[in-house]
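Please, is this right?
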Amino acid sequence: DKQEKFDTRLRILDTWVKFATKWDRTDLWFGHKSIPYGHNPRLDPGHAFMPNQAGLDLSFGRDTGFFVKTPVSNDLDLELSATLGKGDTWDYHGGWLLTTRVGSPTFKINEVGLFVLGGKIQRTNGAATTNSDLTTVYRVGGDWIYKHRELWKAVNQFSVGENRSDGANDRFVLNILNSFEWYAHPKWTLGTTHSLRYEEPYDNHSSGQTKGAFFGTLSYAVRRDVRLRVNPFAEYHNSTGDRNVGVMFQLCFGCGLIR
């Protein structure tokens, strides 16, 4: 008979120490937080559980290490991170990851950014390492965000690069993300996101593979500091034919404050 297995894992999300400096808009962090992979949403952007392009591409969007953000001019901010390439896991297998983004400050109506990253990372799934063999990754990409007053926001992002491991698994990688949020009412937010990843091996014996995810969200402010979110999702993988669908629920305290 087939036996069911129950498993529980403790996952690191955002755990860091922030140091302010005497320089305007310049901050330093040590700890575990989002890497500057384009417009990489944190745990609680306008609404949480939105798909993360870094997570779909690298298998994680947060990492442990050193982070800095500083302006290079009135219209450009520079973000840098030097991290361990282990994602949200507790184990470490000798990896590293350097990530840099230059883009418009977040208070701009139009945000445009360019980012690059490179390193050796372990493959993860949540708090678990699925492959401790390190994969060499390189990416370059761009993002564009437009905010129409306090009514809606559109996010578009892409990246290209390659993964290298043992030679036989070297491949080209393309990522695209499109997201739209509509602030229908001070208490109600609607949104949708599509994130896609395409990879093609350099050898001539394998075909390209596409995987992606559609996410929707409905967010309601129960009180000024409490939000209830419902997030239906559908994930697909063209090579396996898998179609995973579901709904996630979140009750968030102290996030998404309204006036």
About this structure: The first helix runs from residue 53 to 58.
